[in-house]
Amino acid sequence: MAPTPNGSVDYPFCAAPDDGGALAVAPGVLWIRLTLPFQLDHINVWALDGGDSGWTLVDTGLGDRRTREVWDGLLATVLAGKPVERVVVTHFHPDHIGAADWLVERTGADFATSLTEWLVARMLCGGNTPAMEAAAERFYRRSGLDAETQAAVRDRAGSYARGVPGVPATLTRLRAGDLLNVGSTSWRVIGGAGHTAEPVSLYDAANGVLIPGDQILPRISPNISVWPAEPDADPLADYLASLDAWSELPADTLVLPSHGLPFRGLHGRAADLTDHHAARLEEIVPFCAMPQTAAAVMRRLFDRPLDTHQTVFAMGEAIAHLNHLIRRGALLRNTGPDGIDLYRRGAGQGAVTTR
């Protein structure tokens, strides 16, 4: 997740609520912030007031003891007096779905997300199979990572279940275009892809409010990665198409992101992110005038020390850009006799743009 220019956005709220506190940000919408034990040290979750029918919670934080204790406090204070009717998850990442199973059991709430996000969470929560481990080993070996880093990355495999100890057994499936009624407010489900395969965003047209999960953030670019299970995927194409789709919403929409502060300036921010990825693509093509490994491209794009957690995401993002350039015909990929992929510029290729 790289920083991108954000002069095109305005922040109507100067400060976030305290950890475990809440702040009203729109009619019937409470902003709750939960601490994360990562460099990205927080997640914003949202409580939607459905009146007598109760609360709809959007995203949950990790499934660790500390997060559960914070939720116990919120249920007893800020949310007291009304039941939790529904838990909605924007996507399968641990900071978004981790506490969902516990909250559903604790409150008796319904659980809702897209089918793809639910299935991926269910799969990963069960741990890696030998076939999945073999696929990951091939994937990172092909990338050109050194043996020590490969071993560290493999040791990290299976960590998903630590942040997501359980996933609800049943769900209400959300599809793009569905209307989710929360009291008298109708939230339209907006689809998209890129950060994950089928994330859920919610839009309240009456009040001009968007909850996009991680699909659009005010200061950093959402991670767009290729993973071992789908090594030839092109999630960047999906993400760029999703950015284009935000132009259909009003420019003054209040955006409630999962990280950072709520902001206005949706169209400008989408343009910033499109330009950010265009710059990445433009940087990679000349770098590959001589054959390069994915690991070399990763180090070019992320020229700072990376821990194992960051390396996994940086490698996934580098390969996402490489795969996109292959699909565009700007790069060629060949596998050497050592099993490592090499990427080189295609003959006669000109500039690459995302527009």
Give a structural overview.
The protein is α/β, with parallel strands linked by helices and 355 residues long. It has a single domain, classed as 4-Layer Sandwich (Metallo-beta-lactamase, Chain A), CATH 3.60.15.10. It has 11 helices and 15 strands. The protein has a 7-stranded mixed sheet. The chain has a 6-stranded mixed sheet with strand order 8-9-10-11-12-13, with no helix packed on it. Strands 14-15 form a two-stranded antiparallel ribbon. A hairpin with a 7-residue loop joins strand 12 (254-255) and strand 13 (263-264). Helix 5 (130-143) packs antiparallel against helix 6 (147-156) and helix 6 (147-156) crosses helix 11 (308-327). The chain starts with 21 loop residues before the first strand and ends in a 10-residue tail after the last strand.
Question: What is the CATH level 1 assignment?
Answer: Alpha Beta
Major β-sheet annotation: 7 strands, mixed
Task: Provide the spatial order of strands within the biggest beta sheet.
Answer: 1-2-3-4-5-6-7
The poorly predicted ranges are none
State the order of secondary-structure elements, H for helix, E for strand.
Answer: EEEEHEHHEHHHHEEEEEHEEHHHEE
Provide the CATH architecture.
4-Layer Sandwich
Averaged pLDDT: 93
Radius of gyration over C-alpha positions, nearest whole angstrom: 21 Å
* Structural class by secondary-structure content: alpha/beta
Supply the CATH superfamily name.
Ribonuclease Z/Hydroxyacylglutathione hydrolase-like
The CATH topology assignment is Metallo-beta-lactamase, Chain A
